[in-house]
Specification:
Elements (H helix, E strand, L loop, with lengths): L11 H9 L7 H7 L16 H18 L2 H4 L6 H13 L3 E2 L2 H4 L10 H7 L5 E2 L2 E2 L1 H11 L4 H4 L20 E3 L7 H6 L9 E4 L17 E9 L4 E6 L21 E6 L12 E6 L6 H9 L2 E2 L2 E7 L7 E4 L3 E2 L12 H8 L6 E9 L1 H8 L27 E10 L2 E6 L44
Parallel strand pairs: 1-3, 2-10
Antiparallel strand pairs: 4-9, 5-6, 5-9, 6-7, 7-8, 11-12, 11-13, 11-14, 14-15, 15-16
């Protein structure tokens, strides 16, 4: 059974108000630390457990919640398609590292061309990136609403997006009045703001690099939800719109950077961007939103993860750690474990410290992973890797993206990836284990479940 603190303070009433839209908007960044934990069994912990039994119980619980998904964090499932879309795209991209995917995954080999990622996302069971800048975030929003490269070409930009085919279609618009930054004006416009609507700022100056697109204060974000009386907007943002209240309340998992904002009645915009609002882009009707959401549920995060279980009183006492595992089950096409889903699966555990160490494949390894099948693990890619017991070093194979940790019932996020490209740096601080190695003091007694693959039997 899962182990949760007896005095855990659950803001059930606030969550219900948020879900109904009468308090704040639904915010997964808040709910991850306030919704009642989703545990698989009830009853008291096994008395006088050994470390081995503690690890086994914890692995069972984590695996069960992983496969259940995020509905319990949201307070239940929804049948409203626009609400399902807002939850889907938030669950996929929350916590994404701020960086251009083609640079961080491909070490600049693609020349800042993110098209291969959009191609993958529009294939059945393809991959989505674990890093995005504001423009890639908005492109993901369009893909999850059913739009393709025929609609957005190589992707949206923080600047110049009004010329994209998607905004030329019947039912779409691009409006430039500065007062549209007001939620009242945006929601009352002839072509009014709604889910997926884009807000863009940039300095349209030919003398600037790329004409000002994606340069300096240039920024773009999209609407998750709208509210009425008073008119309000909720953005999904990388932080550039500078919402004064985006870091409230304090229960939110800190340092994530990319997540769902609170309600706003006016979009502030990027620092230095005053006077450079370049427009609000409203989308045409989705080609088929239900089908697009079903397809999004089958997309896989392009990453690998190691689960590490340690003592609660002494987190340096590692009880068990898995090898590097794909961030999806090798069976079960909707068992795809985004960063938010990983966090929810360990939320609230006590008696043990649980953390996910998340890694991105790079360069040739990333290409090979994207071209592989759901059943592939790193053992199927071993021709591109050092031996499974050799320490992971250098940036050419993996980049350590982040650590998602639950200690004493509270989640935290620790960024590991740099803010600049380290493709030529061969001094990666690694997690001291080879990619194919399990470890920990309890591991010798757990050889029957070693390695613990998602597609295998629960311990």
């Amino acid at each position: 059974m899962a182990r949760f603190p007896a005095n855990f303070q659950i803001q059930a009433a606030a969550n219900a108000a948020n879900a109904a839209g009468t308090g704040g908007p639904p915010r997964l960044s808040v709910f991850l630390n306030t919704s009642p934990p989703a545990f698989s069994r009830t009853g008291p912990p096994t008395p006088n457990r050994s470390d081995v039994d503690l690890v086994k119980e914890t692995l069972r619980d984590i695996k069960t919640v992983l496969e259940q998904g995020l509905d319990s964090a949201w307070g239940g499932a929804t049948t409203d398609l626009d609400e399902r879309w807002a939850r889907t795209v938030t669950g996929m991209m929350m916590c994404a590292h701020y960086f251009t995917p083609s640079v961080l995954y491909m070490t600049n080999a693609l020349g800042n061309d993110d098209s291969p990622f959009w191609d993958s996302m529009t294939k059945p069971g393809g991959f989505f990136p674990l890093c995005i800048c504001c423009q890639q975030s908005c492109t993901v929003a369009l893909i999850t609403r059913g739009f393709t490269k025929a609609h957005f070409l190589t992707g949206l930009n923080a600047g110049g997006s009004e010329g994209l085919p998607v905004f030329q279609l019947p039912g779409a618009s691009w409006q430039k009045a500065n007062d549209l930054r007001s939620a009242e004006k945006a929601c009352g416009a002839t072509a009014k703001a709604g889910p997926g609507t884009i807000f863009e700022f940039f300095n349209d100056d030919p003398s600037l690099p790329n004409g000002g697109k994606n340069f300096g204060f240039a920024h773009i974000a999209y609407v998750l939800r709208t509210g009425a009386t008073p008119a309000r907007l909720q953005l999904f943002d990388t932080g550039g719109m500078n919402d004064d209240k985006r870091d409230e309340p304090s229960v939110m998992v800190k340092s994530m950077g990319t997540y769902d904002d609170p309600w706003t009645e006016k979009i502030k915009g990027p620092s230095g961007g005053e006077g450079h609002f370049s427009g609000m882009g409203t989308l045409p009707p989705s080609p088929n939103l239900a089908a697009a959401l079903d397809a999004a549920d089958r997309l896989r995060p392009l990453g690998f993860v190691r689960l590490v279980l340690s003592g609660e009183q002494d987190p340096k006492n590692v009880l068990y750690s898995t090898p590097l595992l794909p961030m999806h089950a090798t069976s079960g096409e909707t068992h795809n474990f985004s960063l938010a889903r990983l966090m929810w699966a360990i939320r609230g555990l006590t008696g043990i410290t649980a953390e996910w160490r998340v890694f991105m494949p790079r360069s040739a390894l990333a290409v090979k992973v994207m071209g592989g099948t759901r059943e592939n693990t790193l053992f199927d890619l071993k021709d591109l890797l050092p031996g499974p017991k050799e320490l992971i070093t250098g940036w050419d194979k993996f980049m350590w993206l982040c650590v998602l940790r639950n200690h004493a019932g509270v989640l935290s996020y620790e960024r590991k990836a740099p803010r600049h490209d380290h493709s030529k740096d061969n001094t990666l601080t690694n997690d001291k284990l080879g990619w194919g190695v399990a470890g920990g003091s309890a591991q010798p007694a757990l050889k029957d479940i070693d390695p613990w693959y998602w597609g295998g039997q629960a311990p």
